[in-house]
Specification:
Blueprint: H1 3-24, H2 30-52, H3 54-73, H4 84-90, H5 97-111, H6 115-123, H7 128-142, H8 145-149, H9 152-155, H10 157-177, H11 193-219, H12 233-245, H13 254-277, H14 284-305
Helix pairs in contact: 1-2, 1-6, 2-3, 3-7, 4-5, 7-11, 10-11, 10-14, 11-14
Length: 306
């Protein structure tokens, strides 16, 4: 199926999700109404461009999507623990049982506003460095752990017990995957429930940064192929060489051309680094083990920081 068709379906889901959220979320006044209208209008605008101007979308989505996503998450209401989807998902107590735990885990990720962010990162093809930078910036903009830990979902005794079990499980994974690193000083339960909650939210945010980028590295074509146009970089270079041979390429000089060339080198180097960091050329088994080791290192770093 064409990539833009997947993007169309994803934008339909995001638009419908925002409409449902606006209908269910409480509204405290004009600023909230403007904010809710923007949340619906943002994916709706992208959906309209994809539907009626698909060529324009293909040419400009690499800057339209990051710009709209970052602007949306600069709004203060996006970080409020009692507004929008955060209040709907985290404002209720947890449920008992395995099914309840799985449902509460989804409520947590959705309440942290990570579901739409991850969907947008995976569904809209962009250069790796743009997708990674945009995704990381939005996760950091949404970071507001202390109020989230005071919500009804996370402040309940059942959730605190689950957090303690998750800490033990992640520590055990560190012992199995990183046996040669002296981690004994970092292993063990945190000093307080607030620290346990903050550490787990930091780890969820790290997952939402690293896992989507890893999936993009593993599924996007190699560096020689563009994801925002329909033409490979190799073909463009061949066309450029043909124009040079016939004398049809205008000479580029001065600082604008130098800046463009420098940016191309930086972006190409960033993409190459991401492919190296996430083992873009390995097998799926190697990639899975590599990502597990990386996440274990992130968990230990979070515990040392917390």
């Amino acid at each position: 199926m064409d990539s833009i068709r997947w993007e169309w379906y994803g934008l339909v889901l995001l638009t419908l999700g925002q409409i449902i959220l606006v209908l269910r979320a409480p509204c405290a006044g004009l600023p909230d109404r403007v904010w809710q209208a923007w949340l619906v209008g943002n994916p709706a605008l992208c959906l309209a461009i994809v539907t009626w101007r698909p060529d324009t979308w293909r040419r400009h989505r690499a800057w339209i999507v990051p710009l709209l996503r970052v602007i949306t998450h600069l709004v203060p209401q996006q970080r409020a623990s009692g507004k929008g989807i955060t209040g709907l998902m985290l404002g209720r107590p947890p449920k008992e049982g395995l099914h309840g735990a799985m449902l509460d885990a989804f409520r947590l990720v959705a309440g942290m506003r990570m579901v739409g962010n991850v969907m947008a990162t995976l569904l809209v093809p962009m250069p790796l460095h743009v997708a990674a930078a945009t995704n990381a910036a939005i996760v950091l903009l949404l970071r507001n752990n202390e109020p989230l830990c005071r919500t009804e979902l996370l402040a309940s005794p059942l959730s605190k017990q689950r957090l303690a079990h998750l800490h033990t499980l992640l520590d055990a994974c560190c012992f199995m995957v990183l046996p040669l690193i002296p981690t004994s000083s970092l292993i063990g339960q945190p000093g307080s429930t607030a620290e346990a909650c903050s550490a787990m939210l930091n780890f969820v945010q790290a997952l939402c940064i690293l896992v989507p980028v890893a999936l993009l590295v593993w599924t996007q074509p190699p560096a020689g192929q563009s994801v925002s146009g329909g033409q490979s970089e190799q073909r463009r270079q061949e066309r450029h060489q043909q124009l040079e041979n016939t004398g049809q390429v205008p000479e580029q000089c001065g600082w604008p051309a130098g800046l463009v060339a420098a940016w191309q080198r930086v972006s190409s180097g960033a993409d190459s680094f991401l492919r190296w960091a996430f083992l873009g050329q390995g097998s799926w088994v190697q990639r899975g083990v590599h990502l597990m080791v990386l996440l274990d290192g992130v968990w230990l770093a979070i515990k040392s920081y917390t």
